[in-house]
Amino acid sequence: MHTKYYIGYDLGSSSVKVALVDVETGKNVLSLHEPSHEMSIISKQNGWAEQDPSDWWDYVCVATKRLIKESKIDIFNIEAIGISYQMHGLVVLDKSGVPLRNSIIWCDSRAIKIGNTAFEVNGPEKCVEYLLNSPGNFTASKLKWVKEHEPELYAKIYKFMLPGDYLAYKLTAQMNTTKNGLSEAILWDYKTDTIAQWLLDYYGIDSNLVPEIVSNFTSQGTVTSTAASQTGLPEGIPITYRAGDQPNNALSLNILKNGEVAATGGTSGVIYAVTNNTNSKEASLINNFAHVNYNSKSPLIGKLLCINGAGIMYRWLRNQSGDDSYETMNRKAARVDIGSDGLSIIPFGNGAERMLDNKNIGSQFCNINLNIHTKEHLYRAALEGIAFSFVYGMEILKNENTVINVLRAGNDNLFRSEIFSNTLATLIGHKIEIYSTTGAVGAARAAGLLDGDFDKFGKNITNNDHVMTYLPLENKTPYLDAYLTWKNELEILLKSKL
Predict the structure, then answer these.
(1) Alpha carbon of 429 to those of 68, 384, 448, 476, 491: distances in Å?
(2) Is domain 5-247 annotated with CATH 3.30.420.40?
(3) What pLDDT digit, counting tens, does each position of 91-105 carry?
């Protein structure tokens, strides 16, 4: 019997990752990325961020050929393709499918004013009720920017797409998108379960520019002969899944049901909670997107809360600390008591924080006692402060009536720290399951969900990726005291920014 495979792509802003997994077991056979260096981001003006979609495709082709060569598999045993991609980007194509300009990617801020004005003019109540979000600095607002500032180019647009839609188009020659993608573009009307025509009308955007909508976990097109010759893949393989990176990261952790929450703790932190609650009281602080398995009968929403100042705080401390590795910092921090002898670190020094109503309060070191506090105290206070920022975010989610039954996280630097993970697990009162996986592996596995067997999908994740579980500690009091001290310092800072 021949082993069958799925391929998953994860199109990020730094590289293209590709993974090959075993159909039956879900085991990761081989993963790699291209290029070896980080992809460049073009910034023609302050606050702008663009990339050339043609570069993405070139790296996909190189990575795919490498994967085939290094894995030595029979390519005719590849059954399906899944795609994950950087969210909120804008790609505009002419009728021949050629990009008319660089993609305006997720971290580009040029359309903030356009989105904020749309929020005020159309009314916050209407936007929250129908879109679950402010139009903000998302894809629809970026397209409006092109219309206003590049009218001659705009007139040539045949279809607009998200980055993952463009990759799917290059593989299949089909111009289509998904409900999930339109929700992250802030163009999905949850009340009518259709395109938000009223927002398109407000922006003066022709609805014919929206690609055909296809469902996830179905065939969304098949690899063409042209794409086959460029990638080395056989012609005819179907694409059966695509999603933005944060919903896909949640899926990669088996976060698919109401009450399940995913967390990542890299340079920035993300909490992504799946809920069947389509109301939002905190739309200015968090984002709401159709989850990967959203449909009108089961409207599962991913509530995404981003913490800009997370792991970057600990990395900054490491950069100031000579030869101390993260492992050494963690060991030294463990010598200090819970609460860091009164020292609190506010980690929000990586720009304006959406969950703090877009305030930029910077990182703060509070209550330093020059007679007792050492570098070890700084290490512990930083880990605690980052954990406390996650707890603060979870409180915002709970104010949304979000149910939290289980938290699963990737095995990244922050969650490898017992101080960070024990602090978080104890304060939220839930176990934290740690998994070692990637977005490309998750997208590859998701390509096999045509049969809807989510139970098998979840078992494969548990069998292949589970690393450990942190349980809440019995004595919560010292953690709660430290958190309340930290929260009080934060609230003082927020009031000072009014």
Answers:
(1) 45, 16, 34, 9, 23
(2) yes
(3) 999 999 999 999 999
